[in-house]
Amino acid sequence: MRNLIFLLSLLFLGLTHTVAAQQTSVINFYLTPSISSELLNKNGTFIKEFLEKETGMTIKMVIPASYDEMVDYFGANNSSFAIMSSQSYILANKKYGAVVKLRTVRFGHSVYYGQILTRASSGIKSVKDLQGKTIAYTDELSTSGYLYPRKILEKNNVQPGKEIFAKKHDEVVRLVYEGKVDAGAAFYSPPATDGTLRDARMRLKDKYPDVDQKVITLVKTDAIPNDPIVFSKNFDTEAARKLYMALVKLAQEPKGKQMLLDLYGTEGFVKASDADYNSLRQVMGVTR
Questions:
Q1: Helix (H) or strand (E) holding 68
Q2: How confident is the model at residue 222 (pLDDT cuts 50, 70, 90)?
Q3: Global confidence as pTM
Q4: What is the set of domains in the chain, with CATH numbers?
C-alpha cells in the first residue's frame, strides 16, 4: 500500500510539474495573416492578454509573414497554438503532428464557403468565361481564397492567363472592385436575413459603399470546415484545455466577442476533432 501511495504521489507531482512548466514557459500564439496587420495586432493583443489573465500563462503573440511560415512554426520544439486556416491545419498535422481542439462558429454555422468574385460590368457570366483572364487569390495555403476556387477552375478545364496572390481577402476584393484583375477568390458566408453582407466584401463596405453592387459572386464552393484552433504536438493536455476553455469564455463576453468578430468574423467555438477535416484532406489529396 505504501508503495502504491508513493507511486501515485510521484505521478501527481509529475503532472503538476508538467502543467506548471507550461504555465511558466512562454507559449507562442499564432494568428493567420489573412487581414491587415493593424487589426491583427490590435485584436490579437486583446485576446492574448485575456488568455494570460484567465490561465496565468505567459503568451507571446506572433503574426507569421505567410501561411507557409505559420505551418513551419509548428515544427519548432516549443509550446504553441494558433487560429489558423483549415488547409494550413491539414499540413501542420501531416508534417508536425499538430492537434485540433476547437473550430470557429460564424453566423451560427461551423462551415463556410469560398467564392469567385467578378465585377458586375465585366461581362463574365460563367466560370468558362475566366479562360485566359487574370485572377487574384489570397495565399496558396488559403482554403477559401485559393484551394476550393482553384478546384472549380480545374473541374471546368479553365486556365487563367495570369494568377496573382494578394495575401488578404479584402485586398482581393479591392483588386476586383478597382478593375485591376478580372476575378478573385475570397471567403463567403450567406448574407443576413436583412441582406447585410457577411462575406469578404463586407471588409470594404466602409471604403466602397457600393461594393456589393459592383463586385458580385460568380460561383461559390462546396462547404469548408471552419478555421480550427490548433495546438502543437506535445502541448500539455491540461494546459491546452485551460486555453481553449478561456477562448470559449472570451467569445461569451461582449467585448471579447466583438474582438473575435472584427478579427475573423468569429462568433464562438465548438469542440472539433481531426475527423472533421477529412473531407478537406480529400480535396487536398493529402493522406493520413
A1: helix 67-73
A2: very high
A3: 0.76
A4: 26-108+226-284 (3.40.190.10), 111-224 (3.40.190.10)
